[in-house]
Design brief:
With 248 residues, the protein is mostly helical. The chain has one domain: Heme Oxygenase, Chain A (Up-down Bundle). It has ten helices and no strands. The termini are far apart.
């Protein structure tokens, strides 16, 4: 029996078909292969043991400000998507960021649990000044999702999710290998290594039908480049900043 072709909603791009549903994902993977975030100085020092647990702890305390902020530009992006069906893809992601409405499973909460596992007190984070690299990262996401072309914001957030899967796997493997966290107590990074490829695909599915349009494809590729750049830049700046602070 022939499967009928979905009728597009007037004013909206047609839904992606299975045959062409991974062009944005494939492009994002090419961008990440070129940028090679997990080979930058932060990950090189972490993997080799040149980064001390005290230095790593300080970078993660700062990174918590990105974890807490990330759902906010995502929520703003949802309101800009005209097609309610496409909106649902990112809405599911946002709900998962909030632990399926279980506060103990908020990604902010699981990251705080990770911080406690490496000897940090999340209650004391409010007294820490936000490093400029974190403010810059959060500001870029806000601008991309609120003021830029919709395709830029969606692709930017999607490629960050995709990259964070590999970043999470690399961080989780390093902290266990160095003996900083027992494997059975590893939280947050273990989860994101597993789910963020799916999260990325949920973002990319929103713009996949627009890939065939040259102008919209330009904005999608711009978003991918931007997301890869700012995440790579964030980790590079965290590595540099923790050395500048004199943490040993």
């Amino acid at each position: 029996m022939t499967t009928p072709t979905p009728t597009p909603t007037p004013g909206h791009p047609p839904a992606a078909t299975p045959a062409d549903s991974h062009r944005v994902l494939d492009h994002a993977r090419e961008v990440l292969r070129r940028v090679a975030i997990t080979a930058n100085p932060f990950f090189a020092e972490l993997a080799s043991g040149a980064m001390t647990v005290a230095q790593f702890r300080r970078t993660q305390e700062q990174f918590s400000f990105a974890v807490e902020f990330f759902p906010r530009p995502m929520a703003a992006l949802i309101g800009r998507i005209p097609d309610p069906r496409a909106r649902l893809e990112i809405l599911r992601n946002l709900v998962e960021e909030h632990g399926e409405f279980d506060e103990r499973q908020f990604h902010k909460s699981t990251f705080e649990a990770f911080l406690r596992s490496i000897g940090s007190d999340p209650a004391g984070l409010e007294s820490q000044a936000l490093w400029p690299c974190l403010r810059a990262f959060n500001a870029v996401l806000s601008t991309a999702c609120v003021l830029d072309e919709l395709e830029v914001g969606v692709a930017c957030m999607g490629i960050i999710e995709l990259a964070f899967s590999s970043c999470s796997a690399a961080i989780g493997a390093a902290v266990v290998r160095h003996g900083w966290v027992p494997a059975e107590r590893l939280v947050h990074y273990q989860l994101h290594a597993a789910i963020d490829v799916r999260h990325a695909d949920e973002f990319f599915s929103v713009v996949e039908p627009r890939w065939s349009d040259a102008r919209q494809r330009y904005f999608i590729t711009q978003g991918c480049e931007l997301g890869a750049y700012v995440l790579d830049r964030l980790y590079r700046d965290l590595q540099r900043a923790v050395h500048d602070t004199g943490v040993g």
